Amino acid sequence: MKYRVLIVDDNPKNLQIAAATLDENNYQVEVALNGKAALSWLERSKFDVILLDVMMPDLDGYETCKAIKSNPSNANVPIIFLTARHDIASMTAGFLAGGVDYITKPFNTEELLARLATHIELKVAKETLLDVNRWLEEEVAMKTAELKEANATLEKANSELLKLDQSKNDFLKAISHEIRTPLNGIVGAMNLLKNSKSDPFFEEVMAVMDVSVSNLEKYSYAALQIANLQLRGEDSLGFQMVDLVALSNACLGNLEHKAQTVNTKLSITSKCDEAFVMADFNYLQNAINALLDSALIFTPSGTITLSVEENAMSYKLSLEDDGSLFADTEVSHFFDSINNQNYQFKRNNAMELYLAKMIIQLHNGSLSLQNKPTQDGTLIIVTLPKPILEV
User: What is the pTM of this model?
Assistant: First the structure.
């Protein structure tokens, strides 16, 4: 590629020497005898560098330089002054007019070629940088537009998901209510039938129905609570001071009759007389009942022990049994969601355990479950924070 050079000088001999030198070194050269001719060239052509004589009639080199630079299309074209002057004032005037360099007459060929090469290289690098900047700006603008579009799509999708989630919760609440209404009638009718005289086969069938209806009622109630907690979160809770020790004793008492029917022993040990936490009494009671009921189902003819102890920043409620184990090794994923993966466990009443997990998390607590390492049975640990007392 040949770089284009415009030489401006009112001395034809100087023009001839400079043009011949540059032509021999693979430059494409055009010449102008004065400033007006130079401006005329620049109106119809582009150059990579301009060699401009300072001392010229009509428009001198400084005036010509200012006129060239006044056109934005020439902003990056380097102008090198050719001058017999080498005083500071002349050089300063050249730089102020817009020049980038100067070469004193008579010029040295090697110096001329070196300076031309340097300034052309700088010009090309600057133009490349500008091109890169323009490309980057275009890319940024394009990516910004894409991100805005993607964000709008995500917002729309999120809005639709929220509507679907709302519809799901509404449906779950509605169906839970619809199930509980006929269940109440079934339970009442079964209680009447239990009191009537019947044969052993009839009693056996009634026992099966009783268990099934009880489970259906229990899980329906759990589904209703889950729907409400998912919909309203912490707003569902009415916090008050609750004694965890007293509440645990009450929960055990509620299950005492059921435990006796399966020959399971219930006990509680507490290392503190009281353990007050900020909690929704009913929901926390439901969570503890769910954990106890789960342990009771899978611990026939065994022992279930509930204990409460105090730590520096929290209270720990431990529920230990000697029943069947959680079969899968990935016990930590048991509460990920209520779906089929939870039913790979022998203890497959995931609905109630999921509800317990939700309730405890909404109380800023934690729930973990594990198999005992050295014997049959499981250990469930609930941690609840101590209330922050205002001074």
Answer: 0.51
